């Protein structure tokens, strides 16, 4: 796949990146280089390779999955401009 200048301009617009017209050829070339690297990755033989979370084998820390209220209600409501009966109080917006 090859990226031309018009495609590079469209990608820049979608990404909300301002690119001057004279910089479009270089941007298109960079996109093509990136796509070339991706194609190279597709050629790697990964048959029998287990997925990894890190380059060094390690076990992720786990904790018991328990439903709790966090026991921080007072500390959280202390930052609220208006709190009543243990909840945030907000202005009524629907009649």
UniProtKB/TrEMBL annotation:
GO terms for molecular function: asparaginyl-tRNA synthase (glutamine-hydrolyzing) activity; ATP binding; glutaminyl-tRNA synthase (glutamine-hydrolyzing) activity; transferase activity. The keyword Ligase applies. Keywords: ATP-binding, Ligase, Nucleotide-binding, Protein biosynthesis, Transferase. This is Aspartyl/glutamyl-tRNA(Asn/Gln) amidotransferase subunit C. The keyword Nucleotide-binding applies. It is an enzyme of class 6 (ligase). Heterotrimer of A, B and C subunits. Gene3D superfamilies: Glu-tRNAGln amidotransferase C subunit, N-terminal domain. Belongs to the GatC family. One of its GO terms (biological process) is translation. Allows the formation of correctly charged Asn-tRNA(Asn) or Gln-tRNA(Gln) through the transamidation of misacylated Asp-tRNA(Asn) or Glu-tRNA(Gln) in organisms which lack either or both of asparaginyl-tRNA or glutaminyl-tRNA synthetases. The reaction takes place in the presence of glutamine and ATP through an activated phospho-Asp-tRNA(Asn) or phospho-Glu-tRNA(Gln). Its EC number is 6.3.5.-. Coiled coil: none annotated. It comes from Sulfitobacter donghicola DSW-25 = KCTC 12864 = JCM 14565. Pfam families: GatC (PF02686). It catalyses: L-aspartyl-tRNA(Asn) + L-glutamine + ATP + H2O = L-asparaginyl-tRNA(Asn) + L-glutamate + ADP + phosphate + 2 H(+); L-glutamyl-tRNA(Gln) + L-glutamine + ATP + H2O = L-glutaminyl-tRNA(Gln) + L-glutamate + ADP + phosphate + H(+).
């Amino acid at each position: 796949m090859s990226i031309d200048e018009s495609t590079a301009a469209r990608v820049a617009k979608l990404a909300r990146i301002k690119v001057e017209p004279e910089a479009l050829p270089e941007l298109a070339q960079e996109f093509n280089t990136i796509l070339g690297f991706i194609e190279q990755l597709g050629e790697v033989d990964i048959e029998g390779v287990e997925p990894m979370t890190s380059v060094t084998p390690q076990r992720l820390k786990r904790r018991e999955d328990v439903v709790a209220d966090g026991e921080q209600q007072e500390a959280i409501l202390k930052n609220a401009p208006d709190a009543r009966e243990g909840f945030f109080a907000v202005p009524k917006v629907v009649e």
